[in-house]
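Thread: "does anyone have the structure for this chain?"

Original post by V.I.:
We have the sequence but no experimental structure in hand. Need at least a predicted one for the grant figures.
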Amino acid sequence: MQGLPTHEQFKSQLNKAFTVKFDDEKPPEELTLTEVTDLKEIGGGFSAYSMVFSTPMKEYYLNQGQWTLENSELNEISLFIVPGGPSSDLFYYNVSISFKAEN
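Reply from O.Q.:
Generated one for you, tokens below.
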């Protein structure tokens, strides 16, 4: 697995599919990257942004935790995913990224 993609690399994948293996008895979950917020300075030399992924409503969902997602352009990425909940016919997941900004 490679390092985390940049903010711009994630933005380039808006509305694209990512897959995550839920468990051995179910097919991979397909998530769509639906939002990437603007990059913000949060103090102490750190920057942050967040992302929202969505998937159609199902009988099962990912638990909060570290998951490995795959994307055709970004390959494998390990992200800490937090369930955001349902809205109409979609279920949402949130990811927050913060990092020490380079000078």
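V.I.: this helps a lot. Strands lie at 17-20, 29-36, 40-43, 46-56, 65-71, 75-87, 90-100.
O.Q.: and Residues 7-11 form the longest helix (5 residues).
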